[in-house]
Backbone:
């Protein structure tokens, strides 16, 4: 097997994940089988317990692994199903020897890389041709040193022709004189070389294409061939990044280092290129109000944003996101901060559709319930995911059934009308890995419903889950008698997976997380339904079938965003040309 290692330079957050994903995509387009590994040098073994404000969303894999959001980039770009390896192996003792970082820890890291790289992720038996490895963090970090040492030994062990190192680093531009500065890259390469690794390719992140003399300087001081210095400059949307690599012949440089030029073909990226250009030409807007509790950091909902974008492109609409902090919709905010209260309600009322994503804890829950109430009563397209489905059920019980104290036992353990209850197999003492996780099957109970039609009239779908609480099965008959229809359930018939209001233009809640399986060109079914309903296209999509013009993914076995219409360049990751109202977007 061949290995491509992607590392990051002095300034972190330069889009190593997008670079690694793009490299994987272009190699796959060359006819090679590709897999990926993400190494994060944290002490946390379970990403599910980490704060979304610090690390963004928790991405969930088919096997239930809770992982870093960069794994989502790999799946979306490569259209594969990653796996997780969390449990430490205890395969015996060290024969009485002192356990040391070198060689014991470094040997274990190398063995882990080889073992995981050999596991197929594309549904085909046998190992892949190339494994793309992304090392998180920054060169020079203390916590990265064991991994750097291990990878240095690994590159020597697998030998020349089997290991290619791509180093991503910043080349900042001084605005006063417009000069591109190479010192950050020089220093990071020096640090890399001091730890036993020599870059084969430099991927330089900058606001504009590198000048010839700058590339000459980098080549001379970093000992990298001129033609192996690639510029990752600002583009209009994330889908252009693989095309940047292709246009600068990065694939040829990688294939040459890996001795694969005679095996691989020219990258076939025609469909990808057309999609990237088509996204740039979209003008007619669709505005979605995102009502959440982590709106201070857009990465907290990264997969939701990507899924909305995939659906918007399929519906030929330019996506605008209005961030609505859920707590700002609550009555208490009207008294404490009237301006924030008015702004939140103005955004909610002005949107074409409402999306309430998942979350944990009671902060902002009443605001989410109010958002569901507004969408239901005003026939505004609504999609609730996980907690968003639960709050829609609670709101219905309160408003339609008159159960004023209806609630989830997560928020009120003593409620007389528990619409949402704790799952029997869960744990209330251990937070990590104790939820209902991974791919689970949902069976449609009603054929003539919007969700079933959006999923192509299948009898069941497989979607990924991440939750501890669920709709109380003892209250289902009361809710259904009042008009709420549970159109999807698990194999036992006691777990509610999909809820709909049949007489509403589009009001759907799902217990699972469909955003994790949305792909460019293959949008999530329920996200497609939301965007189609918000842009007046839902009936047409339901009549002609959602398999055309794009295939559906779900359930089937630094860029230029804009703030209030004004372009702004991001250093910390791309956001796919999605437009924002500026509420809580960190740049």
Residues:
């Amino acid at each position: 097997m061949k290995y491509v290692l992607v590392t990051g330079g002095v300034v972190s957050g330069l889009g190593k994940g997008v670079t690694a994903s793009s490299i994987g995509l272009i190699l796959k387009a060359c006819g090679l089988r590709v897999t990926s590994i993400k190494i994060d040098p944290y002490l946390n073994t379970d990403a599910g317990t980490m704060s979304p404000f610090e690390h963004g969303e928790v991405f969930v894999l088919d096997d239930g692994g809770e992982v870093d959001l960069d794994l989502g980039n790999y799946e979306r770009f490569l259209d594969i199903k990653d796996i997780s390896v969390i449990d430490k192996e205890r395969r015996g003792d060290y024969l009485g020897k002192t356990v040391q970082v070198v060689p014991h820890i470094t040997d274990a890291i190398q063995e882990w890389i080889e073992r995981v790289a050999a596991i197929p992720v594309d549904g085909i038996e046998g190992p892949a041709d190339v494994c793309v490895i992304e090392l998180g963090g920054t060169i020079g970090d203390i916590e990265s040193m064991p991994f750097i040492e291990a990878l240095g030994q690994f590159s020597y062990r697998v030998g020349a022709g089997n290991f290619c190192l791509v180093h991503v680093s910043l080349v900042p531009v001084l605005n006063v004189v417009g000069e591109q500065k190479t010192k950050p890259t020089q220093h990071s390469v020096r640090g890399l070389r001091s730890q036993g690794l020599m870059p084969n390719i430099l991927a330089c992140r900058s606001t504009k294409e590198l000048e010839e003399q700058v590339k000459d300087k980098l080549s001379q001081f970093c000992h990298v061939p001129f033609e192996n210095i690639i510029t990752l400059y600002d583009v209009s949307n994330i889908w252009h990044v693989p095309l940047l690599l292709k246009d600068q012949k990065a694939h040829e440089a990688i294939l040459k280092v890996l001795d694969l030029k005679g095996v691989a073909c020219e990258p076939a990226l025609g469909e990808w290129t057309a999609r990237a250009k088509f996204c740039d030409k979209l003008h007619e807007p669709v505005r979605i109000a995102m009502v959440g509790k982590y709106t201070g950091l857009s990465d907290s909902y990264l997969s939701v944003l990507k899924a909305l974008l995939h659906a918007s492109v399929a519906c030929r609409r330019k996506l605008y996101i209005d961030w609505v902090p859920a707590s700002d919709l609550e009555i208490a905010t009207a008294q404490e901060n009237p301006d924030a209260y008015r702004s939140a309600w103005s955004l909610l009322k002005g949107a074409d559709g409402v999306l309430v994503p998942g979350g944990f804890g009671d902060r902002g829950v009443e605001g989410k319930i109010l958002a569901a109430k507004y969408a239901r009563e005003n026939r505004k397209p609504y999609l609730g995911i996980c907690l968003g489905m639960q709050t829609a059920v609670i709101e219905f019980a309160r408003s339609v059934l008159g159960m004023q104290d209806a609630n989830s036992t997560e928020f009120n353990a003593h409620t007389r009308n528990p619409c949402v209850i704790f799952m029997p197999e869960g744990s209330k003492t251990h937070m990590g890995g104790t939820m209902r996780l991974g791919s689970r099957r949902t069976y449609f109970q009603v054929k003539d419903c919007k969700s079933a039609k959006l999923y192509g009239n299948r009898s069941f779908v497989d979607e990924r889950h991440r939750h501890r609480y669920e709709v109380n099965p003892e209250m289902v008959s009361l809710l259904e008698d009042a008009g709420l229809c549970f159109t999807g359930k698990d194999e036992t018939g006691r777990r509610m997976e999909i809820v709909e209001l049949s007489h509403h233009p589009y009001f759907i809640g799902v217990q699972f997380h469909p955003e994790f399986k949305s792909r460019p060109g293959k949008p999530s079914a329920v996200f497609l339904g939301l965007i189609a309903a918000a842009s007046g296209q839902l009936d047409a999509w339901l009549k002609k079938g959602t398999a055309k013009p794009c295939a559906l993914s779900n359930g089937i076995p630094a860029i230029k965003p804009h703030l209030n219409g004004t372009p702004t360049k991001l250093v910390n990751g791309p956001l796919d040309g999605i437009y924002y109202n500026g509420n809580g977007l960190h740049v």
Remarks:
- The mean pLDDT is 85.
- The domain at 2-40+112-276 is CATH 3.40.50.300 (Rossmann fold).
- The first strand starts at residue 2 and ends at 8.
- The chain has two domains: 2-40+112-276, 282-545.
